[in-house]
């Protein structure tokens, strides 16, 4: 009996770590979504496509321009973020006064178009992108498991970026403006702050976060047009569970759900894709505003 | 109002002619028109290995069959089944009931293929399956309206599984895509391994579609202490499994081997030779196999996404070519009137084409041709774009597929 339990625990320990790695992606993606929703009131369904674009831009930079991983980690979010700014200025900005549904439909349509373009250009099976050899130094090789250094880096990078984002929003002047503009945009504008530009930059920053996650994901998953679509549904569940627009909520829930999903993969693998949604249903029934939401 | 008696009379006189003409010509045309529907994954993980490339292959077959020169019209349409049986069934029902489709081609994703198999039989049309793997299409669920063309799970189990067992891999653990295809591939390979004196230590079922991280499953497989991890999945699932197995060094030390039970050339291209090298896999068509396959590939031209044809796309070409030969032979009207008769005629004729060479179709609907065991080349061995495989061995057609007597197909007993 006790032996059995020990065996199960030993099985579960590596899964907890692997779950954290997936949680790192959930956290980064839901963070971007939360920022965009909190500030713009837009449910950004193009987030998965923008994540995918980040991975593809990393691949293009390497294959076409010879720019390695580290360069891509900075350049890809900037390029995709600029693309986000363009979308916000030309399309999304026109929808702020309308119902949420319009923004959702627009961004969903954009996601389908972007994915279709990449599918036509690059096919569906994906492109290879090798992790830089430098990460082998971080490899964790212990008897119960081998953890590639690159995955360790993914967790570190994700935690750092989440923390930095949280600090910017909660502790800086820009963050204060942002939070104020979320509550009372007219008033903030009256104090001379350029609110429309702030909204544009916020959308750009949220998109850049998605692209950053995309570059992180490129060496792990095959770089393919559907990679974002696979993630985004789970990420939306994470945002709903954490509470729409809550920064802390999305980060904590992202890591937490990655963990739970990891455990489901050991104890009941068939349900591993569903467990997040079961939790979402339970949370919505008991706390409709989400775990960290202000209802 | 410019309507006067003359125009009114004129209109009245032309009405019956107008009404009658299209009706008559449509009927004459319908009797002489073969409608082919290519149903596959146009947007998901199996798009590259089937998708629009399959349609292009079907169009080449139509062109090369020479049937259009004899006054027969052939229309080719395509649709996306999104890997969902309900979507596939709805499309095929509409195709047959509303659009007069005579032949359904390709249909990868076994769960969709099994649904279409039943529907086509019910409507007495023709089902030429190239993309799906499940051996049940010519086994328990065989149909007089279906030909299973390119490959199946039994063939993969024997060829790739056999090679692994011969190399000493006696104990197996499966990572299985949780739907009809994965189950059939796991079952057929497991049976084969046990028949060879090996054992199956366990399996983990992964949700399909939507699983991208296989590291958890790979770790579980590694902990089972099996010598071989059998990947009973396909497309993006296989790509991610192999990629992450390399990342987690699952096969280091050489104690554990990875068996990609269904790996397509498009998967190898996606993985890159650096990761895929040394992988042993089975296919029934490779574009660079001989002069005829190279000529076929050239005639087919560039495929969407700039890929080389997969065995599934080659199978679409070959099966439609053979169907059109049979239809030309028995008369288009007769071929359209009864799908069963058309398939019976196809079975009576030997097959021959550039992609698969000479072959036959068995009573249970199984197309018979050789199966090739390949090894993926190292980057240093590859001499150019898409030069990926080394031929390790060939299984003759009569040995490559499940014996007729073992499939429990009712068509065989009667």
Structure description:
The complex is a heterodimer of chains A (295) and B (414). Chain A has one domain. Helices cover 73% and strands 2% of the residues of chain A. Chain A contains 11 helices and 2 strands, in the order ααααββααααααα. A two-stranded antiparallel ribbon of chain A has the order 1-2. The mean pLDDT of chain A is 90. Chain B folds into 2 domains: 29-151 and 289-369, Response regulator (Rossmann fold, 3-Layer(aba) Sandwich), CATH 3.40.50.2300; 154-283 and 371-399, Rossmann fold, CATH 3.40.50.2300. Chain B has 16 helices and 15 strands. In chain B, strands 2-1-3-4-5 form a 5-stranded parallel β-sheet, with helices on both faces. The radius of gyration of chain B is 24 Å and the shape is globular. The chains are: A mainly alpha (295), B alpha/beta (414). Chains A and B meet through α1, α4, β2, α9 and α10 of A and β7, α7, α8 and α9 of B.
Characteristics:
heterodimer; A: about 300 residues; mainly alpha; about 75% helix; B: about 425 residues; alpha/beta; Rossmann fold; 2 domains; four-stranded parallel beta sheet; 16 helices; 15 strands; about 45% helix; globular; amino-acid transport (chain B); BCAA_transport (chain B)
What are the SSEs and their pairings?
The complex is a heterodimer of chains A (295) and B (414).
Chain A: H1 2-40, H2 47-65, H3 69-90, H4 100-122, E1 140-142, E2 145-147, H5 149-171, H6 173-183, H7 185-190, H8 195-217, H9 227-242, H10 247-267, H11 275-286
Chain B: H1 5-31, E1 33-40, H2 51-65, E2 73-80, H3 85-97, E3 103-106, H4 110-123, E4 126-129, E5 146-148, H5 153-166, E6 171-177, H6 180-195, E7 199-206, H7 215-223, E8 228-232, H8 235-247, E9 257-260, H9 265-271, H10 273-276, E10 280-283, H11 291-300, H12 311-330, H13 332-337, H14 339-348, E11 351-353, E12 357-361, E13 367-368, E14 371-376, E15 389-395, H15 397-400, H16 410-413
Parallel strand pairs in B: 1-2, 1-3, 3-4, 4-5, 6-7, 6-8, 8-9
Antiparallel strand pairs in B: 10-14, 11-12, 12-13, 14-15
């Amino acid at each position: 009996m006790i032996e059995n339990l020990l065996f199960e625990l030993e099985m579960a320990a590596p899964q907890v770590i692997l779950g954290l790695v997936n949680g790192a992606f959930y956290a980064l993606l839901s963070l971007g979504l939360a920022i965009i929703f909190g500030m713009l009131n837009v449910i950004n369904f193009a987030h998965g496509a923008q994540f995918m674009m980040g991975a593809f831009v990393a691949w293009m930079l390497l294959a076409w321009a010879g720019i390695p991983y580290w360069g891509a980690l900075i350049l890809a979010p900037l390029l995709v973020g600029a693309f986000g700014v363009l979308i916000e200025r030309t399309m999304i900005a026109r929808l702020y006064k309308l119902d949420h549904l319009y923004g959702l439909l627009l961004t969903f349509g954009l996601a389908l178009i972007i994915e279709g373009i990449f599918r036509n250009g690059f096919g569906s099976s994906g492109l290879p992108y090798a992790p830089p050899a430098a990460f082998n130094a971080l490899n964790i090789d212990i008897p119960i498991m081998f953890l590639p250094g690159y995955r360790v880096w993914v967790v570190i990078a994700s935690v750092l970026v989440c923390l930095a984002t949280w600090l910017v929003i909660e502790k800086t002047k820009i963050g204060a403006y942002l939070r104020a503009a979320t509550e009372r945009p007219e008033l903030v504008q009256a104090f001379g702050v350029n609110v429309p530009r702030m909204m544009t930059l916020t959308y750009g920053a949220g998109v850049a976060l998605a692209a950053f996650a995309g570059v992180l994901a490129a060496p792990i998953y095959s770089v393919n047009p559907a990679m974002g679509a696979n993630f985004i549904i789970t990420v939306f569940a994470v945002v709903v569970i954490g509470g729409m627009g809550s920064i802390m909520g999305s980060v904590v829930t992202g890591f937490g759900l990655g963990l739970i999903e990891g455990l489901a993969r050991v104890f009941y693998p068939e349900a591993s894709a569903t467990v997040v949604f079961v939790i979402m249903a339970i949370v919505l029934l008991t706390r409709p505003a989400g775990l960290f939401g202000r209802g | 109002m410019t309507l006067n008696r003359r125009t009114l009379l004129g209109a009245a006189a032309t009405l019956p002619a107008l009404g009658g003409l299209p009706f008559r010509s449509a009927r004459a045309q319908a009797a002489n028109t073969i409608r082919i529907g290519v149903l596959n994954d146009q947007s998901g993980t199996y798009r590259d290995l089937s998708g629009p490339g399959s349609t292009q292959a079907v169009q080449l077959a139509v062109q090369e069959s020479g049937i259009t020169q004899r006054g027969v019209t052939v229309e080719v349409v395509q649709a996306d089944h999104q890997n969902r049986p309900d979507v596939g069934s709805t499309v095929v029902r509409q195709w047959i009931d509303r659009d007069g489709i005579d032949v359904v081609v390709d249909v990868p994703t076994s769960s969709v293929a099994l649904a279409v198999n039943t529907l086509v039989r019910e409507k007495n049309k023709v089902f030429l399956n190239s993309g799906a793997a499940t051996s049940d299409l010519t086994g328990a669920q065989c149909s007089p309206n279906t030909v299973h063309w390119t490959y199946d799970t039994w063939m993969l189990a024997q060829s790739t599984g056999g090679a692994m067992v011969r190399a000493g891999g006696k104990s197996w653990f499966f990572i299985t895509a949780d739907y009809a295809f994965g189950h059939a591939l796991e079952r057929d390979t497991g049976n084969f391994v046990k028949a060879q004196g090996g054992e199956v230590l366990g399996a983990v079922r992964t949700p399909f579609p939507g699983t991208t991280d296989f590291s958890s499953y790979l770790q579980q497989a590694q902990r089972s202490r099996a010598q071989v991890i059998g990947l009973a999945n396909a497309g993006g699932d296989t790509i991610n499994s192999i990629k992450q197995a390399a990342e987690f060094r699952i096969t280091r030390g050489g104690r554990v081997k990875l068996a990609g039970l269904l790996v397509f050339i498009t998967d190898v291209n996606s993985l890159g030779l650096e990761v895929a090298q040394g992988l042993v896999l089975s296919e029934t068509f490779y574009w660079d196999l001989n002069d005829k396959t190279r000529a076929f590939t050239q005639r087919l031209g560039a495929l969407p996404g700039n890929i080389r044809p997969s065995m599934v796309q080659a199978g679409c070409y070959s099966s439609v070519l053979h169907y059109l030969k049979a239809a030309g032979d028995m008369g288009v009207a007769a071929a359209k009137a009864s799908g069963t008769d058309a398939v019976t005629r196809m079975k009576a004729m030997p097959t021959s084409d550039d992609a698969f060479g000479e072959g036959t179709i068995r009573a249970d609907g199984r197309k018979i041709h050789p199966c090739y065991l390949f090894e993926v080349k190292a980057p240093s061995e590859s001499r150019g774009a898409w030069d990926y495989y080394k031929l390790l061995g060939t299984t003759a057609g009569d040995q490559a597929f499940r014996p007729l007597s073992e499939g429990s197909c009712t068509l065989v007993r009667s």
